[in-house]
């Protein structure tokens, strides 16, 4: 094998996990190859976080125009062209993907186009003083083109698997990409349907529900669990439900999808409720948003003896698989399926390779965000979960409508809720629904990670007027001294 085909680090997949890991590896002096079979930037930049945030911005702008009277502005003939929103969103995705390509080049990372699969059947087992496996053969990776033809073999002393995830389907539902679609098709819809049923009320389903409802589509969300955004605090999701109702979104919780029948004009979604009743709902389009599944089947993990659990690769807090020299990060290792978690995991893996002491933070210190309107953001335990775990809790709440900046902005729906341990004041969880919730959560993530208490936050002077004052007030409310 030629020298240039041998690397300190081979990363498979260029999503936020893979590109961040590659760049950090190169910054630390490693000779890095990054293999990607599709667009650079993975789901996040091309079909996930970023294009949806661009569409959400369009929906927010349109929503402001729709509310123009409130601001004393008269508008005639307001028209919104969704295809222009799609164009803008695609431009955002392309620009960001190109930006990452530029960074890869700048950091002298070899970007190899193709599909990677392990060729080795055994893995190195000993590490040298720098942390690189040595004494045995490097791990070999075969690369094929889109037709499955072998194009190259490379070898890496360390491998990071960052192959991500894809939309999940369900039995009885045949995704045809036209009338029964996933988020990939939803974000590039040419013509808006009159009605849409969204199967799944998680973050992806909720964000699309907001976008399409603002653009005039009659949206119904169907969720099997008792409330939408099932991992969020139920008091917060109740507020979201009320906001969504105001813009005409129907929410059906506690319904299981039995199947979707195509043919005829509309699609028929067959449902059964927890109480055993059956129901049928019709719509022009069904968007499948019931979750994601890992891309772990086709890379040869079994031959490498890498342990997989329900499709997800098993790793420790340093992102090591149980085969020395092979790491896995991002969606392919499981929850939380979030870009910022993938990035942090990528840095953790690379610094571990370089022999630094670094582990992933506790899952309960990683924020979750939903960028609908109102936005939802949280960190740590919900009230239900904290009680289930037996904590004696104190809760501080502050309504958004009592914040001056929010009132001035005309964004009064929402609340901040901070949950602390009554015994030692530890912040157990924080939940925000309202304007800029996804930006505001950062302060509480930092406080929680550094083990600050609500009392520390309440004594910190926050600028006035800002939305961040709500965090100070909710913290004070725990001690019943909110202003
Ligand atoms: P991915 O981004 O999935 O990238 C994996 C890459 O690996 C892909 O490019 C794929 O082509 C490549 N690949 C796979 N197998 C091979 C192979 N064998 N050889 C070569 N290449 C391969 N998260 C957030 O934090 N915030 C959000 O706002 C957000 N919004 C989202 C909206 C939508 C609609 C979706 C679908 C997801 C969203 N997510 C969001 C989740 C986020 O996109 C993922 O958590 C993130 O992309 C995972 O990163 P990753 O690096 O693990 O893999």
Task: Note the topology.
Layout (H helix, E strand, L loop, with lengths): L5 E7 L3 H12 L4 E5 L5 H6 L1 H18 L15 H25 L3 E4 L1 E4 L7 E2 L5 E2 L4 E6 L5 E12 L3 E3 L12 E2 L1 H4 L8 E5 L3 H12 L3 E6 L10 H13 L3 E4 L1 E7 L5 E7 L4 E6 L1 E4 L3 E3 L13 E2 L2 E2 L12 E3 L10 H15 L14 E3 L4 E6 L2 H6 L4 E7 L4 H6 L5 E7 L5 E8 L2 H13 L4 H6 L9 H10 L5
Parallel strand pairs: 1-2, 1-8, 2-3, 8-21, 10-17, 11-12, 11-17, 12-13
Antiparallel strand pairs: 4-7, 5-6, 7-8, 9-18, 14-15, 15-16, 19-20, 22-23, 23-26, 24-25, 25-26
Bound molecules: flavin-adenine dinucleotide.
What does this structure look like?
With 483 residues, this protein is of the alpha/beta class. Helices cover 30% and strands 26% of the residues. It has helices at residues 16-27, 42-47, 49-66, 82-106, 183-186, 203-214, 234-246, 339-353, 383-388, 404-409, 437-449, 454-459, 469-478; strands at residues 6-12, 32-36, 110-113, 115-118, 126-127, 133-134, 139-144, 150-161, 165-167, 180-181, 195-199, 218-223, 250-253, 255-261, 267-273, 278-283, 285-288, 292-294, 308-309, 312-313, 326-328, 368-370, 375-380, 393-399, 415-421, 427-434. The strands form seven sheets. Strands 1, 2, 3, 4, 7, 8 and 21 form a seven-stranded mixed β-sheet that branches. It has a five-stranded parallel β-sheet with strand order 10-17-11-12-13. The protein is globular. The mean pLDDT is 94. The protein binds flavin-adenine dinucleotide. Flavin-adenine dinucleotide binds at residues 12-18, 35-38, 42-44, 48-49, 52, 115-116, 162-165, 183, 204, 295, 299, 330-332, 337-340, 342, 371.
